[in-house]
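Lecture 7, part B: from sequences to assemblies.

Below are the input chains for today's worked example.
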Amino acid sequence: MRSIVLPGDLLATNPKVAGSGTYVEGGKVYAKFLGLLDKTDTSVRVIPLRGKYIPSIGDVVIGIVREVTANGWVVDINSPYQGFLPLSENPNVRPNKKPNEVLEIDDIIIAKVTNIDPKMKVTLTMKDKMCRAVRFGRVIAINPARVPRVIGKKGSMIKMFKTELGVQIVVGKNGLIWASGDRRKVNIVEEAIYIIEEEAHTEGLTDRITEFVRKRKGEFDEQ
Amino acid sequence: MSNKDEVRLIVDGKRLDGRAFDELRPIKIKVGVLKRADGSCYLEMGKNKVVVAVYGPREVHPRHLQDPVKAVVRYRYNMAPFSVEERKRPGPDRRSVEISKVSREALEAIVMKELFPRSGIDVFVEVLQADAGSRTACLNAASVALVDAGVPMKGMISSVAVAKVDGELVLDPMKEEDFYGEADMPFAFFIRNDRIESIALLQMDGRVTKDEFIKAVKMAKDGAMRIYKMQKEAIKSKYVVESEEEVD
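Predicted structure of the full complex, as structure tokens:
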């Protein structure tokens, strides 16, 4: 069983093992925030239970356009920091189109974080096959600390949703999830995701969710 | 203090409410009471009742308050008009501005601000019922709420006051002791891994001798450690429920 640690709890006395969620002071490793302890012989890390999404390079995020400027878009990425998508990073831009004809305020986009400067200015790109503007489907918001469980081990949970229900899903690292497909199936996905969020730290979650999805699917097949 | 003879605060070696000199008032802590806040805590310390909401790290408005290299911590201590017997005029006053400042500085010592440049962490503290030592109750609650919000911190803050009453030092004074006593000293400690690392807040009104002061620090440390254990217990009890079934 993984134990719960609080900020300042001593985790190890060897600074070499310090992983994410820890800090080193005076040669000792302490927990940085509330989380579950993951301790092995070679590393110690704390898996967060709560907290805001802090962008890092390469993350796929789902954002909402908040402002249109002459050289790009300001995007809310559900984080303390806003993202900026320059015109040059959006493949849909045409010379004869104004920025607001490509993306308007309140449009939702799937984008990737390309750069973060020391002042935490976040630059986004849409030059990736995953990235696009979202004009249909549903966006589900969860606690960003739970995102890894929604994805599952090597994407097992997502794969399960896709094979069992045939819906399209993109999970943003920032806690926003886009799902699209048959409305009733998306309903199931939404319910399942809330269950995952609720029970994120229990064992055998993928199996239980699979069971749940099959049961719910069976219910409307009978109707 | 002229009416010292009329008011006897210590009778037969016990305090007015029957406590020993180094005994805390009963403490009750509830974590995560506000759904919309990132972190929250409700705390009772004797007759003190306080609620804390923590938001952030989030964007700072107005923009000019932003710090390009670290997060800004904002702490608002506010007393409800009905928190004391005589109606308190709502809004910040000299006293609450001062308490907000010293409490914020105590928390700034443990929050890892440098991890969140240009952002802000807001701590809102509302006193629903006050009964001496409300700033210590608020700091205890704020510390728990910050942990609940998942804010990275070096450790936790535990806070308690020591007063001098009828020539005796007493821990965690209540209203009567604060009012008729000779001195009141709120303490806050930065505690890490069950050890007191440093003093994060220390105020004093009235006067004590050097020896008494040294004894007061010892008493406060002792009381703070007991509060720290209760704070930890409160946070863990919220999360243990949801991880009970886990096996690995």
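Note for the exam: The domain at 60-134 of chain A is CATH 2.40.50.140 (OB fold (Dihydrolipoamide Acetyltransferase, E2P)). Keep this in mind when comparing with the next example.
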